[in-house]
């Protein structure tokens, strides 16, 4: 019997099992089904994973050779086989030592770029680097996907450490995005950072040109207030950005894994190179843990195995990421790209269709806001949605500690409510207490039943520091890696985004009223309607 079959058969025996029963039969479950490392705890006791399931999941990971693949990644082997590239974002956060790619140690260049970035960030922060109108007050990062989501998420997350210029992020090709951002800024004290691994992405290049035109209206040498983050030095030069302000990286850094290097420049300018280095150190500590801890005590491995259990074994198609931390507001969006662009694939490394589900839909919002929006469905809807709660024990506002206790109470209460639920008998008692009787009591009681037995996990950290944020992001990166290895897919390419990009270029002429053969009647009709509504 394959590991997958064993897991599914075991799951089939659990139709009557409640998570609460597992706590009754195992007095140590609360601690035995939690992994603690590096000052954080990942609690997965409120799931239906029992001893047998855990053993089977670990056997699945061992059988998929997660340990060998992990070493292959860290050592610079070309594990991104469909693009013939190494996968070395981990080299951007462990700046010591050497890593060989194609017979060359890549670390001297990584270190040199890191030093250049740090020096530039310091110059911007201290006013040594100036705009035409004086010290830089605002930076605008123009990028999309991996060239936007990571730094945008992290700048918000580390707001208590933000003492540099204000940071703005423009990603959407919708002119509203860049218009509304630039409208608030003074071009003479603004630094524009064009972040694009390829320097060809249409949204980014369109926004970059608009920003340059905007700046050129008042700034004599607009190019001097631009920096670029890219793998393509020829294209950045052609755009008119001096090499001194171009920070390059290699193709072995995937876009959605790139915030540790040059793509993190906006974050570095915002919080300072020292805090940025703490962020890198947090990630590097998670790398060490991932490489050395036994699977059962390994945070990324266990987070991945819980994910596999819920998605591929139990068949729950989505998972909600619910940070009880307002500053982690953009983490779900960041994780959507990280997880769904990495593992949303139907073909395995061997070129065959997957025989299990590809990665889940990832979504979420911070608590407590989500509680007043979509938690209704999570508690009483017909679909089971595994929830991943994230909570810091301490906030950054000591004089508002009572807010934080309420926040934490809500987080813990949600996972308890999801697991425990409320029985029909309990609901009937509530209705009796309200004076209801007979059929009406019964009818009203049924609306107040919570089936419970809904799984959740909790990631508990001490405080959302730069170090902790680095740990969290690296934790999720490695989770994606482990899940990808178990599914037998390449987590590091993204061919699925190409078709839409190609077709957008072919649809553009339709909207300009030009001849564009080969489109389906619906698309042609919609394009005509757009033109009609625009009065063309
Ligand atoms: O559309 C997909 C994608 O290639 C992402 O993987 C990437 O993060 C994003 O576009 C931006 O790419 P670039 O950094 O090359 O502009």
UniProtKB/TrEMBL annotation:
EC number(s) given by UniProt: 5.3.1.9
Catalytic activity: alpha-D-glucose 6-phosphate = beta-D-fructose 6-phosphate
Annotated Pfam families: PGI
An individual GO BP term: gluconeogenesis
GO MF annotations in UniProt: carbohydrate derivative binding; glucose-6-phosphate isomerase activity; monosaccharide binding
Pathway this chain belongs to: Carbohydrate biosynthesis; gluconeogenesis; Carbohydrate degradation; glycolysis; D-glyceraldehyde 3-phosphate and glycerone phosphate from D-glucose: step 2/4
Keywords: Cytoplasm, Gluconeogenesis, Glycolysis, Isomerase
A Gene Ontology cellular-component term: cytosol
Localization terms from the record: Cytoplasm
Active site feature: 341 (proton donor), 372, 501
Superkingdom classification of source: Bacteria
Keyword Cytoplasm: yes
Main localization (coarse): cytoplasm
Coiled coil region boundaries: none
Family: Belongs to the GPI family.
Functional description taken from the UniProt entry: Catalyzes the reversible isomerization of glucose-6-phosphate to fructose-6-phosphate.
PANTHER family linked: GLUCOSE-6-PHOSPHATE ISOMERASE
NCBIfam families: PRK00179.1
Protein name as catalogued: Glucose-6-phosphate isomerase
Species of the source: Paracoccus zhejiangensis
